[in-house]
Amino acid sequence: MNLESSNLMFAIDYTTANLTCGAQSFDGKSLHMLDPSGEVMNPYQEALTRLGRVLVEFDDDRSILVSGFGDAKTPENAVFSFTPENPMDGCKSFHEIWQRYHDLTPTIKLGDKPANLGPVIRHATAVAREVTGFHMLIILVSSQLATEHLADTAQATVDASMLPLSIIVIGMGDGPWVSWNLYCFFSAKLAHSLCRKT
């Protein structure tokens, strides 16, 4: 099980942090701003383009699960699928990921609560338990990890480490990203504690 034979998952941040985290890096515009002319890509489109075109070649079954989190409608402990008609079916191509992002994003109301990656990681963990093979979760997030979510996200990460699942977190926009250092510390400390108990 390796990168050459992997199941890809993307998770996209729809919190209101996207409205302000492009002050320096995206001319003060929302990180989810869609250019009507199609000439300017927002940071998410750019990330999906660069990652998708490369990594889609490593996805054997061409089923890429894409979800969103942090929006105003979805409960804080859940994610929403870009393919709601069949959540486990996923997008079949890079073009479909792009098109669904382009079509869905204008209809989504951003949520005003801090990003919580615990539910995102647990969703990916559930998929990894159900579907055989190596899995890669790529999370595109625009903000700091709130202090109240550190422990939950760290625990979800440690639980995920028991499965063939890699987690990659990519920051969108200006940052700052200090809390992610704390997240790494909490995760490592928790994992070390669990190892000592076993």
From TrEMBL:
| One Pfam family hit | Copine
Annotated membrane-spanning segments are none
Q: Which residues form a coiled coil?
A: none
Known InterPro entries for this protein?
Copine_C (IPR010734), E3_ligase/Copine_domain (IPR052079), vWFA_dom_sf (IPR036465)
Residue span, Copine C-terminal domain? 30-178
What's the protein called, per UniProt? Copine C-terminal domain-containing protein
Q: What is the native source organism of this protein?
A: Phytophthora oleae
